[in-house]
Amino acid sequence: MQDRRRFLQHAAALGAGGLSLRGQTQARRAMPADQPAPTAPPATTTGPGVQTPDLKKLPWTDDGGVKVFQLVAEPVRQELIPGKTLDLWGFNGSAPGPLIEANQGDRLRIVFDNHLPEPIAIHWHGLEVPNAMDGVMSLTQPPVLPGGRFVYEFTLRQEGTYFYHSHMAMQEMMGLIGPLILHPSRPYSTAVDQDYVIVLQEYAARPNNPVPDSMAMEFNWLTMNGKSGPATTPLIIRHNQRVKIRLINLGMDAHPIHLHGFQFWITGTEGGRQPESNWIRRNTVLVGVAQAFDLEFHATHLGEWMLHCHLPHHMMNHMVSPVGPLTRGTMTGAGRGAGKMAGMPGMAGAAMHGMALPPGWIAPNANRVPGFPQDAYMEGPMAAMDAAVAKPETYGLPPGWSGAVQGMMTLVRVLEPAMFDHIERLRAAAGGQS
Ligand SMILES: [Cu+2]
Q1: Do 269 and 216 share a structural domain?
Q2: pLDDT of the residue at 433
Q3: For the chain, which terminus, N or C, has the lower number of CB atoms within 10 Å?
Q4: What is the CATH number of the domain that holds 168?
Q5: Beta-carbon count within 10 A of 280 CB
Q6: CA–centroid distance, residue 232 to ligand 1 (Å)
């Protein structure tokens, strides 16, 4: 909220009143070049612009025109959904790390500290930096040892959606990646009202073991900005706004990210903004490993629209090998619905605790059907956790909604102005974005 308030004061001073709270990016870019830049306070975030649901922005300080960021790699405890927390490695308290947001032409200094128990170096993925800043341990720089520090400094020549990550393979699978967004020095020809970034990650975590297996290839926890559905914070859109969603993937899988209700244009890749003649219209984009895509669309259709990875295994939480009827009796410990083991109300947990399923949801002969059970949450609302994940952005969703949102999944809520404004007020009262 600090940033919004500062922006609004600044906008008012420029006579740019009447803008919506979310017109920030446009307004900032629309400022004539001869307008004085806002005075940088001693420590600030990079300012409004990209929204990072469930993630923080890394603050910076100004040192004679150089933007100075303090980046720390460290063990973190990341809550994916209420009741499920993993021991990951991340940056500045989260996995993925916070957003680094800057402008094309900026000079960046990143003071990097290693609080991990082993060496690391940080790579600036896709950035054209001097070779000595490229972050490949023992090739372009000495390893940053435990307790050590390395200072990266370079000028940003590019614009678009980038990311930073450990250049050590197994460390990547422990969470060590973060988004890096560079705003263009000349505004893009089509301005957007909403600008989001979502980092896609995956973990293989056995029940009751909070440390993911970085060597496994079968992932049972899929995240967007470090959260699994339904704990992912929905994107709140006013009807008819133009929306940009930036997707970044660094893991072992490509993720086919699908948006319900709309066709979008792919306007950018990890290589930056694409010329309009190259824009492609789709509703699903396969975000490959080490790739980024910028999607844009006009939110012309009201409703609660899903945005999710379409790999079936990536649309679930707690996935472990199904063992059939065992999960329906007093046994827990296996099967996707056996969430109770990890403290979650899954199907088996519900059965074990005698919770009543809605009549007709399960066939009387279900246990005799080979392959049963498959989708735990479909057995009823016991897998829903609406209250546990309630926040301003979930206001007004129908009861039981959270049972339908799992894994690498979030919601794009295109709302009537009155509802949009109401949720904005709730968010403001709660202290800004979730
Ligand atoms: Cu996926």
Answers
A1: yes
A2: 60
A3: N
A4: 2.60.40.420
A5: 11
A6: 15
